[in-house]
Design brief:
Elements: E1 3-4, H1 7-29, E2 34-40, H2 44-60, E3 63-69, H3 75-87, E4 93-96, H4 106-110, H5 124-131, H6 140-151, E5 160-164, H7 171-180, E6 184-188, H8 195-200, E7 204-207, E8 224-228, E9 232-233, E10 239-240, H9 245-248, E11 252-255, H10 262-280
Parallel strand pairs: 1-11, 2-3, 2-4, 5-6, 5-7, 7-8, 8-11
Antiparallel strand pairs: 9-10
């Protein structure tokens, strides 16, 4: 019998705790924690993500600064907007919603955000600190996954973990976090040979490849914990993950649903990153 890992419930608990922390911060510092979000362009999914982030800020007592720029925004205008937010002492964290319009050099924009305000945890400095197992702002989705494993007492020490996907945003930091938690980690990707055999050895599988129902029951060993980071649409247009949930759940000890699993935790960890950035700030 499997246990469903309820990301919505855990996120709600953590946001309640965070609200108390931000209230205490405001009382001690005389200002709110500040988080700035920059949205350039008219990507519908990005608009939804930004709305959800602003809503989460309101929920936990963080002051949000939202900057909306048109699809045809120039590189210089976008960079100037980011520079102004970075230099604002009321702003503890800055994130630029990706993807940016195609004509924009995203890398040069993101490099304008200093490590101490990089609440997405994407900067070279924060990524390097994570690799060295030093205190840093950690990429929100993999950090949220670790909180789920911790909350549900899923032991990682000495366990075999397989991460499906090697993106800089999820796959790579996920592998490092699991390694730092004493798991034996294998990262699989499009060039991996004998993928099924790799997965069948895993005690923990984290799938972040963006392919609907890719992970099937014959790829999962009995009693494995399966974390589904995917956010896809199936042939009927219904939201689904990377995991064939209905069949895989019968073999699992733990499994996350989509929606209601990792998603709510990602935004919650963003709120935590903003709070921690504020605590470390001098203002």
């Amino acid at each position: 019998m499997y246990t469903l890992i309820d990301g919505k419930l855990l996120a709600a608990e953590m946001r309640g705790e965070l609200k108390e922390k931000t209230q205490l911060f405001e009382k001690e510092r005389g200002r709110k924690v500040g988080l700035a979000v920059v949205l350039a362009g008219d990507n519908p999914a990005s608009q939804v993500y930004v709305r959800n982030k602003i809503k989460a800020c309101d929920e936990v007592g963080i002051k949000s600064f939202a900057v909306y720029l048109p699809q045809n925004v120039t590189q210089s205008v976008l960079e100037q907007a980011v520079k102004e937010l970075v230099s604002n002492c009321a702003v503890d964290g800055v994130l630029v919603q990706l993807p940016l319009p195609e004509h924009i050099d995203a890398e040069s924009v993101l490099k304008l955000i200093p490590a101490e305000k990089d609440v997405d945890g994407f900067s070279a400095e924060n990524t390097g600190k994570l690799l060295l197992n030093e205190q840093s702002l950690v990429a929100c989705t993999p950090h949220g996954v670790m909180k789920m494993l911790e909350k549900y007492k899923i032991d990682t020490k000495g366990k075999r973990a397989v991460v499906l996907g090697r993106s800089n945003i999820v796959g790579k930091p996920m592998a490092v976090l699991l390694l730092n938690a004493d798991a034996t980690v294998t990262v699989c990707h499009s060039k991996t040979q004998n993928l099924k055999e790799e997965c069948l050895r895993a005690d923990i599988i984290v799938s972040a490849i963006g392919k609907p129902k890719f992970l099937t029951a014959d790829m999962v060993k009995e009693g494995a914990a399966v974390i589904d980071v995917g956010m896809n649409r199936d042939e009927a247009g219904k939201l689904c993950g990377d995991v064939d949930f209905d069949k895989v759940k019968e073999k699992c000890s733990y499994i996350t649903p989509v929606p209601g699993g990792v998603g709510p935790m990602t935004i919650t960890m963003l709120m935590y990153n903003a709070y921690y950035a504020a605590v470390r700030s001098k203002t």
